[in-house]
């Protein structure tokens, strides 16, 4: 039930989709004489709100708060058991339609995984994630990536793939099951957690709650240290707000349902992890 509700809610907080839907509805109402005044008022309000979140970069500010929650650590002198990389980089449609692997965004997750596998050949490097779609469609990101890496000669013996999880909560629980099954002696030791900086707070909370001892390793940060006002990129501002809302709503939903150990998980002192 939680999975179904979370995916439904993600559609409702997709600001780009909802903005287009509202525009279509208001333009439709504009045609009818008795709803024309309401439609004009709605269009004015929607235009004003769009300009406001463009001039004042609300989405960027919300995203930057998430992205700066954790710093990327120097692992040179850090003792850890292995690394876990979360899915979310591939574009399912290109694979389903043409059989091609297409990186949509968050490519840094895959690059970081490849780097970890190369630098630490004696440590297991996991990639976790199947398909987050509500309906089964014959796609698993872990399977597609593993096959592509194998065909490209880039797969190393220390790479492992968990292909069934559908969201961050399942990334944590199913990967931990895999660790206890394959390397039970490493299950309680620190593992490097790799995901996008914006997604890291929710991922850390979910993994801690599942019983992991994690070292957050955020990648793929897209906000800068400086906030720029008066941008004229309206569509970019709407999409930025949507990405940020998705994480903040996700954090709240995970906290309310006991899937994360804190509403806004943050750094912990060494030895304080589970």
Q: Which features would summarize this protein structure in a list?
A:
274 residues, Rossmann fold, 5-stranded parallel beta sheet, 10 helices
Structural features, described:
51% of the residues lie in helices and 10% in strands. With 274 residues, the protein is α/β, with parallel strands linked by helices. The protein has a domain at 73-220: HUPs (Rossmann fold), CATH 3.40.50. Helix 8 crosses helix 9 (200-210). It starts with a helix and ends in an 18-residue tail after the last helix.
Describe, in short, the structure shown.
The protein is α/β, with parallel strands linked by helices and 274 residues long. It has a domain at 73-220: Rossmann fold (3-Layer(aba) Sandwich), CATH 3.40.50.
Low-confidence stretches: none
CATH homologous superfamily of the domain at 73-220 - what is it? HUPs
What order do the helices and strands follow?
A: HHHHEHHEHEHEHEH
Strand order in the sheet with the most strands: 3-2-1-4-5
Outline type: globular
CATH architecture of the domain at 73-220: 3-Layer(aba) Sandwich
The CATH topology label of the domain at 73-220 is Rossmann fold
The amount of beta strand, in percent, is 5-15%
How large, in whole angstroms, is the Cα Rg?
21 Å
Can you count the beta strands?
5
- Name of the CATH class of the domain at 73-220: Alpha Beta
Name the average pLDDT: 83
Major beta-sheet overview: 5 strands, parallel
Structural class: alpha/beta
Cα(first) to Cα(last) distance is: 28 Å
> Total number of helical segments?
10
Give the fraction of residues assigned to helices: 40-55%
């Amino acid at each position: 039930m939680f999975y179904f509700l979370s995916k439904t809610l993600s559609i409702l907080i997709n600001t780009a989709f909802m903005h287009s839907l509202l525009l279509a509805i208001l333009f439709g109402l504009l045609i009818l004489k008795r709803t024309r005044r309401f439609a004009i008022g709605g269009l004015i309000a929607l235009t004003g709100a769009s300009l406001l979140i463009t001039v004042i970069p609300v989405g960027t500010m919300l995203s930057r708060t998430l992205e700066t929650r954790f710093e990327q650590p120097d692992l040179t002198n850090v003792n850890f058991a292995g690394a876990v990389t979360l899915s979310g980089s591939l574009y399912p449609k290109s694979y389903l339609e043409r059989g091609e692997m297409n990186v949509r965004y968050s490519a840094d997750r895959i690059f970081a995984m490849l780097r970890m596998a190369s630098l630490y050949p004696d440590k297991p490097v996991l990639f976790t994630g199947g398909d987050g779609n509500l309906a089964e469609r014959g796609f698993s990101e872990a399977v597609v990536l593993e096959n592509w890496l194998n065909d490209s000669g880039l797969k190393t013996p220390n790479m492992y793939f968990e292909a069934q999880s559908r969201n961050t909560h399942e990334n944590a629980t199913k990967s931990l099951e895999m660790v206890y099954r394959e390397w039970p002696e490493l299950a309680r030791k620190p593992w490097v957690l790799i995901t996008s900086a914006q997604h890291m707070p929710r991922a850390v909370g979910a993994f801690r709650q599942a019983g992991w001892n994690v070292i957050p390793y955020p990648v793929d940060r897209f906000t800068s240290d400086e906030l720029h006002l008066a941008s004229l990129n309206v569509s970019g501002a709407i999409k930025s707000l949507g990405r940020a809302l998705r994480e903040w709503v996700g954090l709240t939903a995970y906290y309310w349902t006991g899937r994360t150990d804190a509403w806004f998980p943050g750094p912990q002192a060494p030895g304080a992890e589970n």
